[in-house]
Amino acid sequence: MKNNHRINLSLLPSTSEVTEDGQLFIGGVSVSEVVNEFGTPVFIYDETHIKSKLNEAKKVWGKNVAYGSKAFICKYLVKLIDQSGIRIDVSTGGELSHCILSGFDPSRIVFHGNNKSVLELTRAISYGVGTIVIDSIDELERIEKLAVLNVKSEPINTMLRLTPGIEAHTHEYVKTGQHDSKFGFSIFAETTKQAVNRILSNTALKLSGFHFHIGSQIFKLDGYLEAMKVVAEFIKYYDIEELVIGGGLGVPYLNSDSQISITDWAKYIKDAAKSCGIDSKVEITAEPGRSIVAAAAITVYTIGTIKKIDNIRTYVSVDGGMSDNPRPVLYSSGYEAFLPNKMNSIGNLICRVVGKHCESGDVLVNNANLPENIEVGDLLATPVTGAYGYSMASNYNKVPRPAVVFVEEGQTKEVIRRETLEDLIRLDL
Ligand SMILES: Cc1ncc(COP(=O)(O)O)c(C=O)c1O
């Protein structure tokens, strides 16, 4: 793959190739071909890339590693996770139902969430979900009541989510391990030990382990070590099978960002567990979401308007925006932008790529570097949109959500169809 483009090709899905005349191919399919068939905006996912990340995760973490489905979920992806043999982590009854309806084995589902309702818990228990991660005393009470009614012969398998009181180095909204958090049991609270003892003394419940998750998009791994020290001190009194460290591995979004592989992340955490004296019979495992799917996808838009304001800036408007990628608005996340049909074009036009929503804040890329021969009708792509893009998409301004297309070995597969205008009114009574 040539490397003289304005986009760092390592940000693109792993099977990406650029032809001599500057056309981007992913999975052996040209981006133009996908657009001709499915329109824009469209998420294009590289199936080979996802499979290889799943294999890497399984190899280094073991088969009990769970994919964090909040990053992106659809039936077809659930099928790939199923084939890979690993588990899935869901954080709501909706994600749980999506997995069940996609035919996923419930015993390989891990159920998270800081406010699981009685109905969600009832369903989870009746499906035979593998693990329920208890997040609060109120939830424990709900589970205790449901356990009395449980007709299954096996006790309900649980883990307890601990909040280790550690600040991860990441955006405030995706930090979760600090004391001041809505998630989990504070490791220093007396009630946490009481909760553990309640589970251990209840024959209708089983405690297979503990869980912590300090945040997402983390590059400074020492936060995990700090958390591990605190957690190791707490868990040494209990005979458990596993300790789950959540997800959180950061991925590069910008040309200048560095990368930590899933393999190096796992090694760091396992070394940390050893150095903290965690019993070697405790399986250390994880729930990667972003690091599996983020770089597997690009979003492709069509440019509809180019507005040059002398001495100020140029606005490039595309046919999607904050409804298909809310991350820039939510977390001030940075992205690159490029023209997948003009990969070899030259010149530097620094411009702001914006969406079509009725908001000045609807910015996708603040200072994009695009070629000077950009035109209305060109395709514009943002890389690394496979995680927390479609899964966070909305219908703001009644904009239909894009199609999602998987590509592999020259074949396209539409896995989520584009929403229609009829879809947008289907819930109105
Ligand atoms: C409990 C839990 N596990 C796993 C994940 C996945 O994290 P990431 O996508 O950062 O790997 C999250 C994300 O917030 C989470 O809350």
Write up this protein:
- This protein is globular.
- 28% of the residues lie in helices and 23% in strands.
- It is built from 12 helices and 20 strands.
- Strand 12, helix 9 and strand 13 form a beta-alpha-beta unit.
- With 429 residues, the chain is of the alpha/beta class.
- The chain binds pyridoxal-5'-phosphate.
- The site of pyridoxal-5'-phosphate (PLP) has 17 residues, from helix 10.
In short:
The protein has 429 residues and is α/β, with parallel strands linked by helices. Helices cover 28% and strands 23% of the residues. It folds into two domains: 9-45 and 297-425, Lyase, Ornithine Decarboxylase, Chain A, domain 1; 47-294, Alpha-Beta Barrel (TIM Barrel), CATH 3.20.20.
